[in-house]
Amino acid sequence: MSASLKVLLDPICRTNSIIADFGESAIGRVALVDSRFWWIILLRAYTKCTGDLSLVEILECQKGMRLILTLCLLEGFDTSPTILYGDGCSMINRRMDMYGYSIEIQAFFFMALRSTLSLLKHDTEGKECIKYIYIFVK
């Protein structure tokens, strides 16, 4: 899952090309955690606005959502260094006594779980993921 996309201009051919960035340009070359959550949230927003479910029903799209959920619902994922942060490590320039889970990541995670519930097919693999979401949310 790419963290962002770059648009490169080829001056000779005068064409643009899109290249996925998997964290190479990020600080410390670590891919952002919320990029995988954004993907699911934007997919839900697209289907809700357009009513077009053809993208969601593609096998690769279903598999992508299941893989993201499998990674995020693993035991120990919530203690990943990209989820937790110590006091004073945010962009705020003074001590804020922040520690643990950032509210932004919690909100993205919850919204991604809720969005996935409405996007996953209710086949055998989808039902397994849905079951884990309900267990995790309770």
Structural write-up:
This protein is 45% helix and 13% strand. By secondary structure, it is of the alpha+beta class. The strands form two sheets. It has a two-stranded antiparallel sheet. The longest helix has 17 residues, at 34-50. It is globular and about 55 Å long. The chain starts with a strand and ends with a helix.
Provide the fold topology.
Blueprint: E1 4-10, E2 15-21, H1 34-50, H2 59-72, E3 84-85, E4 100-101, H3 103-119, H4 124-137
Antiparallel strand pairs: 1-2, 3-4
Helix pairs in contact: 1-3, 2-4
Shape: globular
* Uncertain ranges: 92-96
Largest sheet: 2 strands, antiparallel
Give the helices and strands as they follow along the chain.
Answer: EEHHEEHH
Roughly how many Å apart are the termini?
28 Å
Radius of gyration: 18 Å
Mean pLDDT: 75
Structural class: alpha+beta
- Our count of helices gives 4
What share of residues is helical?
40-55%
Work out the strand percent.
5-15%
